[in-house]
Write a structure and sequence with these properties.
The chain is of the alpha+beta class and 209 residues long. 34% of the residues lie in helices and 20% in strands. α2 runs antiparallel to α3. The model has no long low-confidence stretch (mean pLDDT 89).
């Protein structure tokens, strides 16, 4: 009985192996945190890489003839992203699918035309209601929250160029917490087309319909 009691007493005082046990408990948490941080940093890297790619593409689109080469220019952007993902397929679905991209271009007459058409908020509710007067920037006879015209536009027009890609994450931590194994990033740039011809800007009228 004394022998058994002495053995238990020695085992209770023995601290060997405690560090290994503590490490086994803490390591999974630390690993998840490190992979989560790595995933965030990689997302920042991908976004900056995509932003740099569309800057060059936007300048190429803004020269004469660029509006007819948008598909080719988009392909160059995607080619620059092959280190991140395989060549994706085009899809502008609301919920991006894995391995897809969405490229859009909206053109405006001026930088000031980007955004909702200005209106007179007579009732002060911060939204445009029927009958409140507005500036018809795109000349279509109705108020638009997004007055941009789809496409690259013409000479001297301002183009908002945006690309969204969905690529596979490099760490498997996301599925462990119920998140998607794919990450979506979007980059955009706003540049003015070169003055290779006379600009065909619509006449801006004040309407109250």
């Amino acid at each position: 009985m004394r022998i058994g009691h002495g053995l238990l007493s020695r085992l209770g005082r023995d601290r060997r192996g405690v560090t290994l046990v503590e490490f086994a408990i803490i390591f999974p948490v630390m690993a998840l945190m490190m992979m989560g941080l790595g995933d965030m940093l990689y997302q920042m890297y991908v976004k900056q890489l995509l932003y740099g790619a569309i800057q060059k593409a936007a300048r190429d689109s803004g020269i004469q003839g660029g509006a007819q080469q948008t598909a080719t220019i988009d392909a160059r952007v995607l080619q620059m992203m092959t280190g991140v993902m395989a060549m994706p397929t085009a899809s502008c679905a609301t919920t991006p699918g894995p391995g897809t991209y969405c490229s859009t271009r909206l053109s405006y007459a001026t930088f000031g035309a980007v955004g909702p058409e200005p209106f007179e908020d007579t009732n002060g509710n911060n939204q445009r209601d029927p009958g409140e007067c507005y500036r018809d920037i795109n000349g279509n006879g109705s108020w638009d929250a997004e007055p941009g015209t789809t496409g690259q536009g013409g000479a001297n027009d301002v183009t908002l160029y945006r690309i969204r890609i969905t690529y596979p994450r490099i760490f498997p931590v996301a599925p462990l917490i119920g998140a998607s194994p794919y990450q979506t990033v979007t980059a955009e740039t706003l540049l003015k087309n070169q003055p290779y011809a006379t600009q065909a800007a619509p006449t801006v009228n004040r309407l109250c319909n």
